[in-house]
């Protein structure tokens, strides 16, 4: 069924909907449908709130079921942010409304459509292809990040971006823009040319919520925690009992193990380390940690000069649980598996780089001179 009636709404919500619809009509992002025109698909709209401000969103769930997915790649946030390493100046711009009293028709891609993120990312990548290839600009859907080592270059880059924006007329939200900063909030992180930290305002908003009472609430909490997985050591191990609660064949209920895991993740989020951004001209340190009954874990470190003193910092943590077959491996096999997995997982840092491996399993050293027919070890 692709014809759905409007939702019941309060007087306050109705006023917000009318305000947003009038704005969209003025901007020609929607048009009114005539009384004699055939309407084949209707979707209700609703209001969501963030930081005290309302946002209009269409409920396109029914339509999205019949929409063929657009597989255009969305950039991975950690890969995008590592490009800011050693940059002195950072600018962030936010495209506003990049993405109703009577029946109206959209003239642009609306917020809530299944393929809206992929479509918008493709459009932005096409418009700013030259700037992205030159290596001083990152785009994540409607967020534009400009970075440079010198102020002169930075001013020039901002001018180029704004000049390209003029003919396409995107709506830039000045309230969400930060120009020429050394540190700023971007993509849920506090970023600079040296470090990356969790936005604790985001963490506080999630932790103020009550303990999850059902699978949906637990999935939301886990999704938030996994977004910051690079900041949390062995997060896959810690969260394993909570993931089991989300299985279809398990009756949801937080017992002691689950409550302990939930509390541990909250503690890790609020006490997460500030990650350093990599310097590819310096060697890396790879620490591996394989717990035989829990899973695989690793940490990538680097030693840098900070305020004239050498300091070692964390670039990222990674972890995953063991498969059923891997859980039957011996201790040395699991340590070897952890080493191979970590190097492959972090290949975009380690490929072509000098790095040292640190492990608490001395048997790994013997692998360099190993003579065996064990296929698992050889692989």
TrEMBL record:
Superkingdom of origin organism: Eukaryota
InterPro entries hit by this protein: DNA/RNA_pol_sf, Retrovirus_Pol_polyprotein, Rev_trsase/Diguanyl_cyclase, RT_dom, RT_RNaseH
Alphabetical keyword list: Endonuclease, Hydrolase, Nuclease, Nucleotidyltransferase, RNA-directed DNA polymerase, Transferase
A GO molecular-function descriptor: endonuclease activity
Key word Cell inner membrane present: no
Limits of the Reverse transcriptase RNase H-like domain: 279-378
Stored CDD domains: RT_LTR
Pfam families per record: RT_RNaseH (PF17917), RVT_1 (PF00078)
Name this protein carries in UniProt: Reverse transcriptase domain-containing protein
Lineage: Eukaryota, Fungi, Dikarya, Basidiomycota, Pucciniomycotina
